[in-house]
Amino acid sequence: MAKYFDVHPENPQPRSIGKVVDIVRNDGLIAYPTDSCFALGTQLGNKEGMERIRTIRDLDDRHHFTLVCENFAQLGQFVIINNAVFRAIKAATPGEYTFILPATKEVPRRLMHPKKKTVGVRIPDHVAAQALLAELGEPMLSSTLLLPGEEDPMTQGWQIKDELDNVLDAVIDSGDCGVEPTTVIDFSGDEPEIVRRGAGDTARFE
């Protein structure tokens, strides 16, 4: 049964955030709000947690998992960025974007795309998500909470607790969050490619 944490949207309670981070560090799987709907999250090195996300979302091995980072310095440890890409991403973060980039050696191979050796990264503009990442001290392995056969991602904490109670370890509810998935931009080629049009404005990348 998933533990339910009702977190203040502007001043997240440190005690609640600490409890959720303890669950993540103990190989738990959580649902948490971001600026672009809810996400599933687990610790970076948690292989079982990654497989649980695959099962919940019915994903194949070509799915790009996302490393959700607290800030740009943290993001830079896990992906290779040239100067032009650096400027483009810096201008769009934090925000409703996921960027696909070549992974550094810091990224476990199982998290990379099997052929491209790339990984998704993002920095959310959401108070509760930022509090969680600051307390964890490292990126969280994440994926949008979009269930198989559904067109829209889940956006209500109580509904997630209701429907996924038996497959999650914790749900953080912080009131309103985004209702659209992130816009996904692939920077691994010569030109930026818009992979998914979502909450983030694509104009700056076209």
From TrEMBL:
Coiled coil: none annotated. It comes from Saccharopolyspora halophila. Transmembrane segments: none annotated. Residues 14-200 form the YrdC-like domain. This is L-threonylcarbamoyladenylate synthase. InterPro entries: DHBP_synth_RibB-like_a/b_dom (IPR017945), Sua5-like_dom (IPR006070), SUA5_domain (IPR052532). SUPFAM superfamilies: YrdC/RibB. PROSITE patterns: YRDC. It comes from the Bacteria.
